[in-house]
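User: Here's a chain of 672 residues. Predict its fold as C-alpha cells.
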Amino acid sequence: MSTVDLSQFHKTFFEESLEGLDAMEAALLALDSGQTEPELVHTIFRAAHSIKGGAATFGFADVAAFTHVAESLLEEVRSERRGVDEKLIDLLLHAVDCLRAMLARSRRGQPVADADSEALRAELVRLVGGEAAPPAPAAAPNAASVAGWDIRFTALPHLLQSGNDPLRLFRELQQLGRLEVLRAVVVDAAPAQLAELDPSQCFLGWELRLHGAVARADIDAVFDWLDGDCELAIEPVADVTPAALVAAPPLPVAPLVAAPAPKVDPGPRRIRASAAASADGGSIRVSVDKVDALINMMGELVITQSMLSDIGEHFDQSQLERLREGLVQLERNTRELQESVMRIRMLPIASVFNRFPRLVRDLEHKLGKQVRLELHGEHTELDKTVLEKIGDPLVHLVRNAIDHGLETPTQRRAAGKPETGTLRLEAYHEGGNIVVQISDDGAGLNHAAITAKAVQCGLIRPEQELDDAEVAALIFQPGFSTAAQATDLSGRGVGMDVVRRNVRDLGGSIGVRSQSGKGSVFTIALPLTLAIIDGLVTAVGEERYIVPLISIVESLRLRPDMVRKIAGGGEVFHFRDAYLPIMRLHRAFGCAGAVTDIERGIVVVLEEEGRRVGLLVDDLLGQQQAVVKSLEAHYQRVEGISGATILSDGAVALIVDVGGVVRLGQQRSEAA
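Assistant: Prediction complete.
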C-alpha cells in the first residue's frame, strides 16, 4: 500500500494557518479586558485548534507543540477558569506573532523553534500549569491530583470518512505525556472475511494510558473533532507505579487521512486560483461570481467565433453587413472578456487595512497615546500586484501619523481636544485610480521646524518664502527629518522618501495637506491595475510613445511668441497664468528625424503631484489601451520610461513615465 505524499498539501496548510492567525488576531483585538465574550473566545480557540491539528498532521511538530500550549490556555478562558485582562491579550497577540514567524521558517525549510518561541512557550506552560486554579468538580479531577488517565477509545466505522485519523490523535496525546497502548481490539462489527473489509471504514478500538499530571481539558481538546465519530471514556488513574511506566514505541509520522481544513470564518464560497508562474508561488482567492462571469463571457466569445467562421466559409458581398456586425460583436466580447479577466486579479484592500488595528494598538501603548482607528472603503478593490506593494508605504504613514501627528492625552486636553485622537483610513475609486487617504486630527505639520531644518540641510535659502504645499513637499526629501533623535519608530529621515519612491514605482502619486493644530491628510492615488493603461499614442520622429491619459491636462500648439528662453538653454511657455517648462522628448531619448520647431509640433501638458510640464511631440496618433510590458525584465530601467507595449501593427512603443518626465523638466528648469 503506497503512502500519501503530504508535501503537496503544505502550501494549502500554510495559507489556511495564516488565515487562522488573522482571525485569531482580529478576535483578540476585539476582546475587552475584564470581559469574556464566548463567541470571540470560541473563534480564537477553534483557530488555534485547527492550526495545531494541521501542524501535527503534516509533521510540523514544533508548531503543533507551541499551539497546543496556547490552546490549553485558551481552554481555561473558554471554560471561564481564567479571566481576560490586558496582559493576557498582549501575551496571546505575542503568541500569534511567534506562530507567524514559525510558519515562515517552516515554509523556508529552516529550524522552526528559536529562543523567542521557546521562551514564550515556557511562559505559556507556566501560566497553564504553574498557577493555582479554582477547585474543579469531582467528575473532572484537577491535573495535579492524578498520576495519569485511562482512555478507552473505539472508532465508529465512518470515522475515517469524516477526515479524522487515530494516529494523529495518538501523536497529540504523546505531546501531553507518556502514552502507553495497553490493548488494541477489533470491534464486533468488523466483517468476518478479510475480502469483505472496506478500507474506508475503521473497526478498531484502543485502551490507552496517558501518564503524567495532564489536565482533563487538554485530553478533551484532542478528541474535540470526533464528536459523533467514536465511543470515548476517560477515567483518572489514582496511582501508577513508576516501574510500570513503559513508553510506547514511536507512532508513524505519516497519517492515513489528512486532518480537516481549518474552519475559521469561511465567509462567502470562493475558489483559490494558483499563480504557478509567480516566484513565490502565491495564490488568489477568487469569488465564484467572478469565475461564472468569465465562463459566461467565454460562451459569448465562442458563439461569435462560430458565427464568423460560418460567414468565412460562405462569404459573398451580401454577407458584408453581417460580417461587420460580427466584428463589432467580437470587439465587444473581447473587451468584456478582458474586463472579466482583470477583475479576477482585483482584491479588496481590506487585506491591507486589517493589519492596522494591531499596529495602532501596539503603538498607542508604546507611545502613551490614545487612538481611535476608523476604516472606510475596505471592500474597494485593486490589482493584486498593487495591493502587495502598497502595504509598506501605508505602514510608514500610519506610524508617522501616530508618532508625529497625534498628541498625547495631556497635550490634547491643553489644546481643547478630546484625549483620544482619530486616525482615519479611507479608500475609494476616482476616475481610473484608487485613492487611499490617511488623515488624523493631530497637530499638523510643524512649518517652522520643517523650514528651519530645510535651511540647515541646504534645501532652501534662509530668506526663501514657501507656501503650505512647498513646505509639505520638503518632508519627502531624502534624509529629511525634524526628529530631535532617531528612534525605532522614526527620525532617521528614510520613511517618507521610501513612501514616495514606492508609490511612484507603482505609477501613483502622493500629496499632503496640513493645517496647524487641525491635523494632516496624506492622499495616495494609484492605478487600479499595472497591466493595462489607457494612453495617447504620440509620434516623435520615427518612434512612438504612449502617454497615460490620466496624466494629460491639455494638448495645444504653441506660437513662437508664447515661448521664452531662459538661462542655461531651457524653455518655458505661458499656460493659465503660469510658466511651465518644455520637455523636448526627442532630446531626452535621442529620437532621429523629430520636429524641432515648436510651432510645428504639439505640446502635451502633463501633471504629476501638482507639478506640470509641457511635453513636445511631433503629432498625436490616437487613443489606445496598452498592455504594459516591463523593460527591466529584458533590458534595464530607463529614467522617464515606465514600460513598453506592442501596437496593433506589431511595432513596439515605449510608455512615458509621467512622474519621471515631470521631475526631469523641473530639474532642468531649476538648474537653469
